[in-house]
Amino acid sequence: EYVLINQSILPKEEAYININDRGYHFGDGIYEVIRIYEQKPFALDLHLSRLASSAEKLDLPLPYSIEELKVLLLSLVEKNTITNGTIYFQVTRGIAPRNHLYSRETESTLTAFTQVFASDKQLEDGIHVWLTPDIRWLRCDIKTINLLGNVLAKREAADNQCHEAIMHRDRILTEGSSSNLFLVKDHVLYTHPATNLILNGITRQIVIQLALNEGIDVIEEPFPFDVLEHADEAFITSTSMEITPINQVKGELTTTIPLGPVTKRLRDLFKNQL
Ligand code: PDD
């Protein structure tokens, strides 16, 4: 098994991270997770352009051009002969003595690894989700490696026998701890707009496009969590979970939601374009 550090592909055992990397000191970095289906990275360009946008928002220079990054990532996928799985990569603000003040001269560090991964068929019938306050910062649109609000929410969900945490800010539903949230009511799809309060998921963007092509109206508006009680259907989307139905909400509100035709249709359309 090989990993990538900057431009070198190394056996995992030989790869070391510098203790002064700002990723360790400050969580000062950004990342992407890309799905690999049949040896091909899915939506690679969309992920790379989101990485570039995260980098820009954080005044963090990417160490290589998008084209160079693509070549490096593809060579790692090939080297590890990953058929189905994910590639994780991150860029941190590089190695420097610990200091909150960053220099614009520090060279960013790129690291990447692959993971073998198969969809969990058991989740296809739906998952339980845990409703909890969104305690994250106000730039959730940036895919940073700072994920404390997310990991605490995920743990809380698991401690309550739920597969995912669904977060709300002052009762407005935002997104999952590692996914986006969609509701269906009267055949219309509802989701939080792509503001600073959520990550604009690549799967989210693809699902919205598939829905529109199918003549399903999509309304991107904030809504309070009480609407969960009136939803006809609900699902989450992410690179790893694809489109996964929600069948039970627990926590501040408890409700059961059936798996319905819109979710099924979108899931079929999503699978067909892979
Ligand atoms: N998580 N919202 C959050 C907070 C996320 O962390 C993710 C993805 C998404 C969905 O984005 P996408 O469709 O581009 O995967 C939404 C990844 C998979 C992770 O951290 O593992």
UniProtKB/TrEMBL annotation:
Alphabetically ordered keywords of this record: Aminotransferase, Pyridoxal phosphate, Transferase
UniProt GO cellular component terms: cytosol
Cofactor(s) listed: pyridoxal 5'-phosphate
Coiled-coil segments: none
InterPro entries per UniProt: Aminotrans_IV (IPR001544), Aminotrans_IV_CS (IPR018300), Aminotransferase-like (IPR036038), BCAT-like_C (IPR043132), BCAT-like_N (IPR043131), Class-IV_PLP-Dep_Aminotrnsfr (IPR050571), D_amino_transT (IPR005784)
Transmembrane segments annotated in the record for this chain: none
Catalytic activity of the protein: D-alanine + 2-oxoglutarate = D-glutamate + pyruvate
Family annotation (PROSITE patterns): AA_TRANSFER_CLASS_4 (PS00770)
Single GO MF descriptor: D-alanine-2-oxoglutarate aminotransferase activity
Source organism superkingdom: Bacteria
Annotated EC: 2.6.1.21
Gene3D superfamilies in UniProt: 3.30.470.10, D-amino Acid Aminotransferase, subunit A, domain 2 (3.20.10.10)
Main enzyme class: transferase
Gene Ontology terms: biological process: amino acid biosynthetic process; carboxylic acid biosynthetic process; D-amino acid metabolic process
Described purpose of this protein according to its UniProt entry: Acts on the D-isomers of alanine, leucine, aspartate, glutamate, aminobutyrate, norvaline and asparagine. The enzyme transfers an amino group from a substrate D-amino acid to the pyridoxal phosphate cofactor to form pyridoxamine and an alpha-keto acid in the first half-reaction.
Family: Belongs to the class-IV pyridoxal-phosphate-dependent aminotransferase family.
Subunit composition and interactions: Homodimer.
PANTHER family: AMINO-ACID AMINOTRANSFERASE, D-ALANINE AMINOTRANSFERASE
Protein name: D-alanine aminotransferase
Organism whose genome encodes this protein: Halalkalibacter suaedae
